[in-house]
Automatic annotation (TrEMBL):
It holds the Pfam family TfoX_C. Residues 13-84 form the TfoX C-terminal domain. This is TfoX/Sxy family protein.
Length: 96
C-alpha cells in the first residue's frame, strides 16, 4: 500500500479500512495524532457513542493499529485487558 500523502491520515495505519476511518471521522477523530493521544479505548468509546453499531472488532483494530499488531492477535492476546480498560473508561466518576 502506498504511503498516504498526509502523514496524519489514518489510512497509513494497519487494520483500519475505509469503514473504520469513516467511523473515526464521524466521531471527530481526524487523524493519527488524535488517535494516539486518545488511545484505542477512548477512541473506541467515542466512536461507539457516535455510532452504536460499532463492534468490538474496531477496538481490536484500533489497538492493533497503534501497537503494530494484527487485530486478530490483539483480540486473542489483549481482549481481557482492553475490555477491563473500556469498563473503567465508561464507569461514571465517583462523587464524594
Amino acid at each position: 500500500m502506498p504511503a498516504p500523502a498526509d502523514p496524519n491520515d489514518p489510512a497509513g495505519l494497519p487494520n483500519l479500512g475505509p469503514k473504520s476511518r469513516e467511523m473515526l471521522a464521524a466521531a471527530g477523530i481526524a487523524g493519527i495524532d488524535e488517535l494516539r493521544r486518545l488511545g484505542a479505548v477512548a477512541a473506541y468509546a467515542r466512536v461507539k457513542r457516535a455510532d452504536p453499531r460499532a463492534s468490538l472488532n474496531l477496538l481490536w483494530a484500533l489497538e492493533g493499529a497503534l501497537c503494530g499488531l494484527h487485530w486478530r492477535d490483539v483480540a486473542r492476546e489483549r481482549r481481557t485487558s482492553l475490555l477491563l480498560a473500556l469498563e473503567d473508561h465508561e464507569r461514571p466518576p465517583i462523587r464524594r
